[in-house]
Specification:
- This protein is an alpha+beta fold.
- About 30% of the residues lie in helices and about 25% in strands.
- It has one domain.
- It contains 4 helices and 5 strands, in the order ααβαββαββ.
- Strands 1-4-5-3-2 form a 5-stranded antiparallel β-sheet, with helices on one face.
- β4 and β5 form a beta hairpin.
- InterPro entries: CSS2_C.
- Keywords: Membrane, Signal, Transmembrane, Transmembrane helix.
- It holds the Pfam family DUF6736.
Length: about 180
């Protein structure tokens, strides 16, 4: 691994390390992002909007765990977002992870679409982490074991995340098409 990738991974893991009750991010960051950022002139400070565009439950009692139980999985996705952005890459990235207690395994696919010519985002790591954390918790609240998520930072970048528990049997490579 390159040093920059290791550095991003350490930042993401440290973001997930200070667990709030139902959150994978520290309480102080959660408070910080709850402040209205719409007046900010720094695009990197603008909140990322997200929505669940598809999802469901294939296997009873296999609902995706709350974000606080999946910090390593969320950290991996945050690293993917930042890595793809720094490379200005629209290439899909797929992988897998598990809940922090090892009880639940996930498959992921992350990709970017753009309305411009670049696939990068100006969003800071903590902003990306906060959006993924909130979206993850929303998927849990809906009692889903798979979901397609769309993210936007107000520019041309649009991130997409397919996530599914392994037991759901849903293919993350085709489920959001």
């Amino acid at each position: 691994m390159r040093a920059s990738t290791i550095g991003r991974l350490l930042v993401c893991v440290s973001i997930g390390a200070g667990l709030a009750l139902s959150s994978a991010i520290p309480v102080d960051l959660k408070k910080e992002r709850s402040v209205a950022l719409t007046d900010s002139t720094d695009a990197a400070e603008t909140a990322i909007t997200w929505k669940v565009v598809r999802g469901g439950l294939k296997v009873t009692r296999d609902v995706i765990v709350v974000a606080a139980g999946a910090t390593s999985a969320i950290a991996a996705v945050v690293v993917w977002v930042q890595s793809d952005s720094s490379k200005n890459s629209c290439t899909p990235i797929s992988g897998s992870g598990q809940s922090d207690n090892g009880q639940q395994k996930y498959n992921f696919k992350y990709w970017v679409t753009t309305t411009g010519k670049n696939c990068d985002t100006t969003a800071q790591t903590k902003t990306v982490s906060a959006a993924i954390d909130d979206a993850w918790d929303d998927v849990h609240k809906r009692n889903y074991d798979y979901a397609c998520l769309d993210f936007s930072h107000g520019g041309t970048w649009h991130g997409h995340l397919a996530m599914a528990t392994v037991d759901s049997g849903v293919d993350v490579n085709t489920m959001c098409n």
